[in-house]
Fold this sequence. Notes:
The protein has 303 residues and is an alpha/beta fold. 40% of the residues lie in helices and 24% in strands. The protein contains 11 helices and 14 strands. It has helices at 3-16, 19-26, 30-44, 60-86, 100-106, 111-117, 134-137, 169-175, 224-232, 246-251, 280-296; strands at residues 49-51, 56-58, 91-98, 120-127, 141-145, 154-161, 164-168, 189-192, 201-206, 209-214, 220-221, 237-240, 254-257, 266-272. It has a 5-stranded mixed β-sheet with strand order 4-3-5-14-6. A hairpin with a 2-residue loop joins strand 9 (201-206) and strand 10 (209-214). Helix 1 packs across helix 4 and helix 2 crosses helix 3 (30-44). 26% of the residues are buried. The mean pLDDT is 88.
Amino acid sequence: MDQLSAMRTLVRVIESGSFTAVAREIGASQPTISKQIRGLEQRLGTPLLTRSTRHVAPTAEGLLYYQECRAILQALDDVELRIGAAEGQLSGMLRVGVSSAFGRLEILPYLAEFLAKHPKLNIELLMSDDIADLLQSGIDIAFRFGHSLPEGLVARKLGNLASSLFASKEYLARHGSPQTPEQLTTHHCITYQNATVRQRYWQLQLHDEVFTVPISGQLSCNSSEGLRAAVLGHLGISFAQPWLFKAELAEGQVQILLPDYHLPVMPLHAVYLPERRGNLRIGALMAHLEQCWQRNGTLALID
């Protein structure tokens, strides 16, 4: 039995709570995962997991072994990274969590240069608008929007993303362009909502005056990809960030509305588990993306 491989498998089974999820994650069969765990249990002479039809949980001995395995594997990974970094090369796997639209438009276009610099490094980009649990999903670093962040994570603020109101040229040709915040109430407003957020109003500011505008419309979306598609489908006006329509703004297909008014900025954070602090893969990717975003104007960085 490859003990290091079995230890890695046990760690991920306990963190994810699922044999099936780990099998899918590493590209192995579920019987292979079960065999590795049984091998560890036979070696140690004690059960490490309790199994039910829906969940897997560690025994007391399993929790102790998991904690030690995790520390050993992290130390081994750190040593290998330092050796590779001394030669100017990063290696191994980096699992990155990001929303679908931001991953497609603002991360994927900049990975070719990074991966060419580190040919021994593999990146698994997990693109979803659901907020994944980093420990359970095995994510090394995630990029998250907004002011509310989960407790227990290291969060590094990368900057603020400016917000504006957007509509397609065709929609505005049909319905006219609002000239004041109050006129938004007569337009089709595309709102964002998910399990924890539901837009009921938009807030705009001109100098010292704040306008709180109740919004309504026939369409709401739970993803930035949905908002983008709805605007490009001429369905109405959306509150979003310019990166979502960068190409269409340059081509004149989409326009910014009420440009003299300021809307709340959207903070962007890089988040990771405390034990990933100082990880060279994470640090290198963040530095690369920040440089790309600054060069291309994605972020309006603040101190």
